[in-house]
Design brief:
The chain is mainly α. It has one domain: Winged helix-like DNA-binding domain superfamily/Winged helix DNA-binding domain (Arc Repressor Mutant, subunit A), CATH 1.10.10. It is built from ten helices and two strands, in the order H-H-H-H-H-H-H-E-E-H-H-H. The chain has a two-stranded antiparallel sheet with strand order 1-2. Helix 6 crosses helix 7. The longest helix has 23 residues. It is extended. The two termini are 32 Å apart.
Length: 175
């Protein structure tokens, strides 16, 4: 890089130049007080901590409970179905499955009809643990719902956001 280019880069990145383009503090307060994404993130973290605490005696996290529940079907689902239901990619699902497989709660095997697909099977130990965890979930869920003015409305609104997120144009399309 030439000395002139280096000088231009240094000036653009100087504290004085950065101070001229900073977001005003009022905008930070606007985001803090009105950003739906931030509110949902904080609520999700609080709920996750609450359910993790409730599930601790049965040796599960809220994510593991959700994953085990998603496998509790008449026929074993494949990875893609479970990933879609839980709103995660296959790589994240694979990582989440490792601990459950290691504990003997879930078995992963090739699909008999399509060897490229992997079926996720809840083992007898997994079914037993899920049955033991269900009353814990029910009690914790009852407490959360009791604190809400309209749990049904919240569920409907969150479901709408999840569905619309798949159909909505990307923020890149707006700029």
């Amino acid at each position: 890089m030439s000395k002139a280019a280096l000088a231009r880069t240094s000036k653009r990145n100087s504290p004085q130049a950065t101070a001229r383009v900073c977001l005003p503090f009022e905008k930070t307060l606007e985001i803090r007080d009105g950003c739906l994404c931030l509110f949902v993130q904080r609520a999700a973290r609080a709920l996750a901590r609450q359910f993790d605490e409730a599930f601790r005696p049965v040796g599960l996290t809220h994510g593991q409970f959700s994953l085990l529940t998603s496998l509790n079907r008449p026929h074993p689902p494949v990875m893609g179905e479970v990933a879609a239901l839980l709103g995660m990619d296959r790589t994240t699902l694979t990582a989440a499955l490792k601990a459950l497989v290691r504990r003997g709660l879930v078995e992963v095997r090739a699909d008999a009809e399509d060897k490229r697909s992997r079926q996720l099977i809840l083992t007898p130990a997994g079914r037993a643990l899920l049955a033991a965890a269900y009353p814990v979930w029910k009690a914790a869920h009852r407490l959360v719902e009791a604190a809400l003015a309209s749990p049904e409305r919240l569920r409907a609104d969150l479901a709408l956001l999840a569905v619309d997120a798949k159909r909505a144009p990307s923020w890149r399309d707006i700029t």
